[in-house]
Design brief:
The chain is about 55% helix and about 15% strand. It is α+β, with helices and mostly antiparallel strands. The protein has 2 domains: about 45 residues; about 100 residues, Tetrahydropterin Synthase, Chain A (2-Layer Sandwich).
């Protein structure tokens, strides 16, 4: 009976050693499997870097989308998307712009400039900001106002009184300024309003 008890204890000891051996094996294998998965993800499963042509196409598509957004916001004709065999084959279409919620309007200080002869022009501009913008914060953190002001000065400063008396010329210049401000702010300021336009 003592011998049977001793054999039973030895059997239990071997069983525990087997359990420890299996646990030890699992503890060694699991980290190796995890490391192998990470290496596979970083090398095999990682997509290849884009080719220069893909980078160029993506940049062109982004620019086209911005140009279209800005042109539509400023009542101008949007640019046409280039149609190539690759874009038609892939089923790509001209980028469309979703109507965005209008944010607050930032009024800029009026500018006065001399025109030909003894005439002058006083012009005031407001910027349509993105939704959820705070005009006071935008005024101090962004340079959108200075971009718009410089474009206004550059565009209207070289004009004559007679040019600016023509409503069609003036409206065309205003749309161009709105479009340029939109492009230079990467679509954040979609349009520019001319709230003050006095010539004498």
């Amino acid at each position: 009976m003592a011998k049977a008890k001793k054999d039973a204890e030895e059997g239990e000891g071997e069983g525990e050693e087997k359990k420890k051996g299996v646990k030890g094996l699992i503890i060694k294998i699991v980290p190796l499997v995890l490391i192998a998965l990470v290496v596979a993800k970083m090398t095999v499963l990682k997509p290849p870097p884009p080719t220069p042509a893909q980078v160029k196409a993506k940049a062109a598509a982004t620019k086209l989308a911005l140009d279209t957004k800005c042109a539509l916001a400023n009542n101008m004709k949007p640019p046409k998307a280039p149609t190539t065999a690759t874009t038609v084959a892939k089923g790509e279409t001209t980028p469309t712009t979703k109507p965005e919620l209008a944010g607050p309007v930032l009024d800029l200080d009026s500018k006065t400039m001399n025109l030909d002869g003894s005439h002058f022009l006083k012009i005031g501009v407001s910027l349509q900001l993105p939704a959820a913008s705070v005009p006071e914060t935008v005024k101090t953190t962004e340079n959108w106002g200075s971009i718009a002001s410089q474009l206004v000065l550059d565009t209207f400063g070289g004009r004559t009184f007679a040019d600016l008396s023509n409503d069609t010329v003036r409206e065309t210049l205003e749309r161009q300024i709105g479009n340029e401000v939109c492009e230079k702010t990467e679509g954040k300021v979609v349009t520019t309003y001319f709230i003050d336009f006095v010539m004498q």
